[in-house]
């Protein structure tokens, strides 16, 4: 299951993680976000040992969204050692997101 990431726990769960972290920036009202959400959950289940998956509600966590310049949602960022190593803006099928994650491993 994907972690709920907030302004409060983002640094600990993402920036200080020793695993790859896939972060989904989303909002309740965003239709495309609802399409990506289940894919993020699947990746969380399938790659739980190698990577962490988390979701940031941009309406509730303005600080993190601003810190990473999130202007469009859904935006997915892949982090390693606290740095963004890949990015996907907009809806993408599972194989694309999985390929981006695998390419970093």
Give Rg in angstroms: 12 Å
Could you tell me the number of beta strands? Answer: 5
> What is the N-to-C order of secondary-structure elements (H for helix, E for strand)?
EHEHEHEEH
Give average pLDDT, whole number. 95
How much beta, percentage-wise?
25-35%
Query: Major beta sheet, specifics?
Result: 5 strands, mixed
CATH fold descriptor: Glutaredoxin
Low-confidence stretches: none
Number of structural units classed as domains: 1
CATH class: Alpha Beta
N→C terminal distance: 20 Å
Shape: globular
**How many helical stretches?**
4
Instruction: Please list the strands of the largest sheet in the order they lie side by side.
Output: 1-3-2-4-5
The proportion of residues forming helix, as a percent range, comes to 25-40%
Q: Which CATH-level-2 architecture?
A: 3-Layer(aba) Sandwich
Query: CATH superfamily assignment?
Result: Glutaredoxin
Which structural class matches the secondary elements?
alpha/beta
């Amino acid at each position: 299951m994907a972690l709920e990431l907030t302004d409060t726990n983002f640094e600990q769960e993402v920036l200080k993680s020793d695993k790859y972290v896939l972060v989904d920036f989303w909002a309740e009202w965003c239709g495309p976000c609802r399409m990506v959400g289940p894919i993020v959950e699947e990746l969380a289940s399938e790659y739980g040992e190698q990577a962490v998956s988390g979701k940031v509600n941009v309406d509730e966590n303005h600080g993190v969204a601003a810190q990473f310049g999130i202007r469009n949602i859904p935006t997915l960022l892949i982090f390693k050692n606290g740095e963004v190593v890949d990015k996907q803006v907009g809806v993408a099928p599972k194989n694309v997101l999985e390929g981006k994650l695998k390419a970093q491993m």
